[in-house]
Write a structure and sequence with these properties.
This protein has 303 residues and is of the alpha/beta class. The protein has one domain: 3-Layer(aba) Sandwich (Rossmann fold). 44% of the residues lie in helices and 18% in strands. Strands 6-5-4-7-9-10-13 form a seven-stranded parallel sheet, sandwiched between helices. Strands 1-2-3 form a three-stranded antiparallel sheet. Strands 8-14 form a two-stranded antiparallel sheet. Strand 1 and strand 2 form a beta hairpin. Helix 2 crosses helix 8, helix 4 packs parallel to helix 5 and helix 5 runs parallel beside helix 6. The N terminus and C terminus are likely disordered.
Length: 303
Amino acid sequence: MPLRIESKTQALLRKGRSAKVAGCVAGAASRDRTAIVVLLTNTGNRPVALITGASSGIGETFARKLAARGYDLILVARRADRLNALAAELPVHSEILPADLTTEEGLQAAEAAIRNCPQLALLVNNAGFGTLKRFWVADLHGQEQMHKLHVMAAMRLTHAALGAMTERGHGAVINVSSVAAFGQTEGNVSYCATKAWMNAFTQGLDIELRGAGSKVKVQALCPGYTMSEFHDTLGVDRNNIPRFMWLQADAVVEASLRGLDRGEVIVIPGAVYKIGAAVMRHLSHGLRRRIGKPGKLGKDQRV
């Protein structure tokens, strides 16, 4: 059964004092805040996966697919009600950690969950959001939040996971990137840039892991348009995108997990996007400037 801990966890974060929640969450006091530590219990020898952005879309699909593969789960997202509903449906031991990874408190909570889970076998850095505004008119706070989430949170959670994984000699990290990493489109400057960083970061880690003789795997998953709340919240009209360009979240996650089994570092689901990414790599900057605008510029939404 899932442990529903969100209300007490949030109360602890607000009050900044140590306590235990349902025998599974403990507070570790720091100078001026409480870091919430998730300890997954009753897992036996089953592997554990921690998934950020698990409340919907690709993250939710990862949760369902990994549960079917026998993973116990730590589900991280901002929306506690969604996490509770998902955990209640899953046939494995699942715990939820409602956290905003753009905040220091939320990020520390997720780092602690990783470091205190000796069975952690997979980290999925999936949390993210997009904007549709030219950079200089976009809300600066939103741009900062995007860089915190796509870059700093992914970096810190990966760092928290890799130490123990490399010592154990097994484990994996999947960074959910985007085909946007291979180019730039108007209205998506920070999104494309942070996803390009994510790809470079993942490839660099793979070089270091292989150089160290480690069997730990890393992957950058680069989907295109995916049927999920991401584009709906962003305000993208699906009717403006050809149907053949839309991917199902199920197919995206299946491609990721197959690629992980094969040791693929960059995974691009869908033939059309594989071709598109290959073309974009060779386009001049002048040609990239002629790529059409991604719909009406105006939205600046967190998903």
